[in-house]
Amino acid sequence: MISDSVYLISNMHPIQEKILKLMDRQDVSKLTLRAIGSLVGEENKPQKVKHHLSQLAKKGLIRLDKDKNIIEQVKSGKMKVGGLVAVPILGSANCGQALCFGEQRFEGHLYISSRLLKKVKNIFAVKAVGPSMNKAKIGGQSSITDGDYVLVEKDCGALKNGDYVLSVIDGLTNIKKFFRDQENHQIVLVSESTQDYPPIYIHEDDFTDYFINGKVVQVLKRPKTDQEFWQETSGLDVLKETGPISKEDYNYYNNLCSKKEE
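Given the sequence above, the corresponding structure tokens read:
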């Protein structure tokens, strides 16, 4: 279960953590900045408290309404105002080698129109790092490139061959395509990239160091800069359509999708 009350944020100031924990216990809307400061160990420093409240609002962790004197936490789920959905961001995941630590890091929310979401409940977001899934087709359309936000469904039930997953191996996170190779008693995590990334092979007895956080259900694309757009356009004629592994190996694991699982 993912809770909004978990504050494992790598770049959060300790005062901001204290303010959020205070807001878990009581409504601070009617408190003065000086009173909030005294409760978080910052006596007689109202301007410092004001600054950190502003920073929390910029991160999307709280909502400030000066006119109505409201200071409240932003909870995951559909918001009352505007009909947007607040999706929790739980850090980053690597799309190349597994280099990002998998410790849950709540970093705020993405605000998304419900019309843009394929799923609304039971999802969280991670930021993709690396190019190893830039040929993937999530939902038959979207690839995963560096800087995109990936929406993950937790408690997704049984996985099928060909699903895209967010997994943790030895405490490191990665996004890959999932294949259960029952014949060889292994799980294979495959990259789909214009670069050469070898698969990850996991024996069925090594599952204690491997678990799946959820299934990738959608990608929210990062807007391209003008420079990226022209670089991509000029490079289209030189991109190779080969996969990250040999065609024979890739076809073997891809064909597992059509096999009936026992």
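DSSP finds five helices and 13 strands in the chain. Try to locate this feature in the token string yourself.
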